[in-house]
Amino acid sequence: MSTYAHREAAQQQRQQQIQAVLKNNQHTLVQMNSDEFIDFMFHIQLLKGKNREQVVEWVDDVFAKKTVVSKEWEQYKTSIKTTTGMIPLGLDALALGALALEMQRGGNVFEKYQIKTYNGKPNVIFKGYSGLRSHLTGTKYLANNPKVVSFGIGKLGAAKAIKGGFITTVIISATFHSFEQMLNDKSTWHDFVGGLTVDVGIAAVASGIAWGAVSTYVGGAAAMVAVGPLLAVVVVGAALTVLAAAFIDSDALSKRISDGLREAEQRLKEGLLEIEYKINRLERIYDADPIGFMHRLFGIPYYGNRY
Amino acid sequence: MDKQLEKKSLINPYKAVFFIVLLVLIIVGYFYTLFAEIAMLKRVYEQSVLLKIRTVVVPLIVMMPAFVVLICGVVSRLKNQASAKNQKAGLFIIIGCFPLFLIGWMIYSWQLTAWLHDNGYKECGWYAGASLGAPKVMVNNQGLCIEEGYQVRIDLLDWFEVQYQQGITPTVEMVTTKQQQLLSDYHERFDLL
What we know:
The structure holds two protein chains of two kinds. By secondary structure, chain A is an alpha+beta fold. Helices cover about 70% and strands about 5% of the residues of chain A. A four-stranded antiparallel β-sheet of chain A has the order 2-3-1-4. In chain A, a hairpin with a 2-residue loop joins strand 2 (about 110-120) and strand 3. In chain A, helix 2 packs parallel to helix 5, helix 8 (about 190-220) crosses helix 10 (about 250-290) and helix 10 (about 250-290) packs across helix 11. Residues about 1-10 of chain B have low confidence and may be disordered. A three-stranded antiparallel β-sheet of chain B has the order 1-3-2. Chain B has six helices and three strands. Classes of the chains: A alpha+beta, B mainly alpha. At the A-B interface, helix 1, helix 7, helix 8, helix 9 and helix 10 of A face helix 2, helix 3 and helix 4 of B.
């Protein structure tokens, strides 16, 4: 088999991989500049069985429909028809938008897209499908490696869900402890703080474990934007919270913390009493012998009676 | 090169192994708690004077398939055998377990409380804390439930456990004496006298 044929076969294989990956229903946000997008668009069209000339004609048709005239495209399209390697081709936002719209209408490549300009250059950001990230960043499928920007969004979404479950736990716990505080004369602020600390701590750890486990299961933070994984985080987090609270005897732990707070308060009171006593003593010394007091304090020479 | 890429795992294997081990430990921890809970409930037949029950433990068994699905899912991702279809089904099981757990918890809690009442046990609020995981304390003699015992409840409950382990059935006098002693120590410790 010739090198060319081997390369073509490998490319075909990668294209099939991408097609399989795109069928999954997890979302990934990808940012591409115009060169990367042109490259990507070409491969998608080739995947559909078109040859290079047909793809160039397809782009011409798209631009004609949208009445977009791109100087860069006109300059390079002839060489693209004939050469096998891809030529970087900067397009303006209008041309890029026209291609992106056509790609979206064309079907199974991406759901939504946006054209954003960064540093004066247009970029297309689109919402793809699961597994796209690994292929885009991990292979030589494209001339350049586009940026996958879904991490932040995934984490934010998950954080929102976790925050929701976490705050619910805090509210429930605070309500229980407030009632206890109001209805039970024996309960003090130490019990309130101790109990709430344990409940919140358990909920925080459980939420963290739930997020980590579910994100590992569904395929990283990028996949966490979907509703299913977020719900799963809340569900697993809630189950872990009640399980952990039962397993570690949270009541005994909160009692230990509240007793610790009582001890700390007691030590603080004793410390304050000691300070008060010392201040009173100094006041008495000063009243009895002001010069002697200054001598003791600053070492000023003094020949009177000493304490 | 391509084969290498194909073989390359999509997730961090250390992270995956960590979560697999953690989830297995959670399941083991659950069954440990479950057996302890069942052992506590068995004390009803021995006419134990005091029970510490957690109504949430038994219904939590409904959530175990969710953890098993998570483990299997992470393992299949580790082996690069995960598919969107399986993940969707897994998420459906995980999320579906939760309403079943809530319904189970409600019914179990209601049934268990009724059963304990039938066996002569009543709730003692003074020995139960307000934490989410605090056990429900039931006694078969209301004289054993002392209001002043609230502040020393953890030590008092430990004392009850020691009495049970030694096969001693505490009387109201014994409990009152112990509670007063513990409370006195408590006041002395925090200078509340």
